[in-house]
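Table S2 (continued). Query chain:
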Amino acid sequence: MRQGVLSGALWFALLCPAMAAWGAPAPGATELLAQAESIRSAEPARFSELIDVLQKRRDELEPRQREQLAYLEIYRQGFGGNYDAVIPRLKALIDSAQDRDIRFRANALLVNLYTKTRRFAESLRQLGTVLPQMDQVKDPQLRVHALVEAAYLHNEIGQYPLGLQYAERILAEHPDSRARCFAEYLRYDAMRNLATLPVDKAPLHAAIAHCEGGGERLLANHIRVILATAMASENKRTEAISVLRSHLAEVESLRYPYLAVLFKTTLAELLFERGELSPAESYASEAIALSGAVGTSTQSLVSAYRTMYRIAERRRDTETALVYYRRYAEADKAYLNEVKTRELAYQIVRQETLEKTEQIQRLGSQNQLLQLQRKLENKSVQNTRLVVVLLTMLLASIGYWAYRTKRTQMMFRRLAQTDALTGIGNRNHFTTRAERLLAQSARNGTEVALVMFDLDHFKTINDRHGHAAGDQVLVQVAALCRQLEVRNGVVGRLGGEEFALLLPGMDLAGAVEVAEDCRRRIARIDTSATGNRFPVTASFGVTTTALAGYPLARLLSLADRMLYRSKHEGRDRVSAYEGGYPLPERRTGAQDAGDAHRWQAQGQEA
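Corresponding output:
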């Protein structure tokens, strides 16, 4: 998984190579533009003053230099983080600029801004317009910077093989010192996530030295984090801690919150693994305090909360452990949602690209056929048969593409209705089918039963044995649900580890029997394929329309309360709502935490 990315300010700095050779302006203008270009990220206050001076001397500038000044003014505004205001101005410059290199520069910057604002689909589309223009720009360093944006974006959306390819392509282009430093960072970032870092750490040390020699301390310390994590994976935690601690003061002096959070969460993890709880707690707390400046859906925040939870658990402080565990679970969910959003954006744009390619091919084929048809119309009657053949081919082509379009529509409909992991209906699809079935049953007077169940201690399975093991359990449970589904019934995954079965024509006793059968089958699930053996159980809640009526919300509510009755009474059981007695309240956090400890002990025994 990724440990972090660079800020907008740092990436902006890369997109502004010197452009002093773009013309001979009035005295002083060239020097001012060159100076502004050279200090834009190193001395932001002085850079801003130079832009103000150049704005007042705008009349002295040539048209190309005015476009350059407009770009630098937009850069200044974006450097401050005001991305939403910058994007419309940048688009206007792209439309109005006459200089090809300025347009290319602005387009590359737009890729960066879309990535910073998490608009990954638009960023990918924009990159698709920038890369084909590379051979048309005059400055070779601008081409390198476009490749940097491509590598950065693909690393951001989890496409590390492509990010690595772009980074190595940059290094092959013999870039300037700054671009080489970026390329080294992007290459090792991708290699870390692909688990292909070199065994010999000399190249990492060389990359750090190169970046420091060029004044790129921020990038040097990002590579230093990669080096420390690689050392830790080789059980060299003491050396890794030393590498990070010796440069922590330098990182804090940079006043770049994301890197400080990354350093401190990494230190907290390493110190906890070495048993130094107090300094680990201090670094994790500082990282959490800084997280407001870097966002709430980062892996660093997930790591910090996880470390705090584990520290409290090690100290047997159950109440504090429960508080941090909940925060860890929320942060982990937000991070995973962010990852899924990136992956979905990549798949959407990839599909759009394929469809455009197919459309171009289809139009090309149709155009060729029409041209042939015109030639045939000018010939004698002897060519009539050829015209018929061509028309038949055209109709067949249209029919084929209509068939392909229909299949594409059906594929997207299936994706929208199906849970990607388990292959059964998702919550929206389950709700739609269930409401339709309940309405029909209400008209016919047919009784319908609802069975809901939730896997016990599923979070513990994920934390102890990994998400891959948890995913295999979910897939096996979904397969059991499909085996139990009765005729015209509805099965769905409501979210996380929660499932539901809607059983038409079944009374309460029959539904309880189905639930008991399902519970026993779940308890018999073999987890050895995950590489670990641990128990899998579920708690069930059952109700019917005879007791709850036909509104789906009422059925779900009663079944959910019965599910929590099962949780309350010890889990791994079935509770049915029979009416006439109070419903249970949800369990307290301390009770759930205690059960989780007991479940872990059972898993160790298994």
